[in-house]
Specification:
heterodimer, A: Arc Repressor Mutant, subunit A, 7 helices, B: alpha/beta, 23% strand, globular
Chain lengths: 153, 161
């Protein structure tokens, strides 16, 4: 799954701000952390603000502050502000959609979309912050069947 | 995966007074009631069977209940399962239930931690479960405990008559 740049920036910003909802961060501070354009990030923050996830704090020392519920807002909530994470809105308009091959392909792609949505909608920002702050686990050994297949390959 | 809760009046949850212990036969009515509140269906025969299988003090099966001052506030059920397809045995959680009155006090996490400790003592290194894709609350709960997608994908096929 590939996220659009604006979506990725929104997730970064939401996570940065959600890590400490009392803290205010300037757009420039967030942009600098990820090496991204302040202007682009400002547009993203406005969208998050319209959705009620962040608020702009005016005046000296102003910036942005998280105002959503970190235990309720999911990755999917943020992503869907910027792009569709689900199946094509008009699958019948895809080239060859009416053909048996097109219909079969649609069933497989729908399966992938279902799993992606279930995953993204089950991970709240609070859970994502835990994942961010945990060291990556040691690489799990693959099932023996996979290992055998790899050896044959 | 089963998820239960109950609406009956119980004492206000106090995490310092909650205790998790293996289920006894006398817990069966409370578990049935808790499950019925959630599913809308009383299943005493089903839970009696589950009790006999999981609460019989077998070293690799676990039926735990959480209580506070005699009130049963939740339960969790699981076992160590040996798997096919090259996977070593792992812990398997197949049911968890928490009273709505006791939620947001860490009781679900406490039950999960307790059964994981028993799985660890039984010598396994992973805990697994399986959930419906649209069970958002349960999915979020297990995700919040650090569970991630594993190395297997569940497949199924409708068996035509």
């Amino acid at each position: 799954m590939k996220l659009q740049i604006a979506t990725r920036l929104a997730l970064y910003a939401a996570l940065q701000l959600a890590a400490d909802p009392e803290r205010q961060l300037a757009a420039a501070e967030i942009a600098e952390r990820y090496g991204i354009s302040v202007n682009h990030l400002a547009k993203v923050l406005r969208t998050l603000g319209r959705a009620g996830l962040v608020e702009a704090v005016r005046g000296a020392g102003g910036g942005y502050r998280f105002r959503g519920n970190v235990k309720r807002v999911t990755l999917l909530d943020v992503i869907e502000l910027f792009e569709d994470a689900g199946p094509s809105a008009r699958p019948e308009e895809e080239p060859g959609a009416a053909s048996p091959e097109g219909q079969g392909l649609r069933r497989v792609l729908n399966e992938i979309d279902d799993i992606a949505r279930a995953t993204l909608s089950s991970i709240t920002l609070a859970t994502m912050l835990k994942i961010v702050n945990e060291p990556p686990p040691a690489e799990a050994a693959p099932p023996k069947s996979a290992a055998r297949a790899a050896k044959r390959g | 995966m089963e998820m239960s809760h109950r609406k009956t009046e119980i004492a206000a949850p106090d995490p310092s007074e909650m205790r998790v212990r293996p289920a006894h036969a006398s817990d069966l009515p409370a578990v049935v009631a808790l499950d019925a509140e959630n599913t809308g269906e009383a299943r005493p025969a089903y839970w009696k069977d589950r009790f006999e299988w999981y609460a019989g003090r077998q070293p690799d099966r676990f039926f735990l209940v959480a209580e506070q001052r005699g009130d049963t506030l939740g339960f969790i059920v699981g076992e160590v399962r040996a798997w096919e397809f090259g996977s070593p045995p792992s812990g398997w959680v197949f049911a968890i239930g928490v009273s709505p009155r006791a939620r947001l006090h860490g009781l679900g996490s406490l039950l999960f931690d307790e059964i994981c400790a028993r799985f660890r003592s039984a010598g396994v290194q992973h805990v697994r479960t399986m959930l419906a894709k649209d069970a958002h609350l349960l999915l979020s709960f297990f995700r919040s405990l650090g569970m991630m997608g594993g190395p297997f994908i569940q497949l199924e096929k409708r068996l035509e008559p």
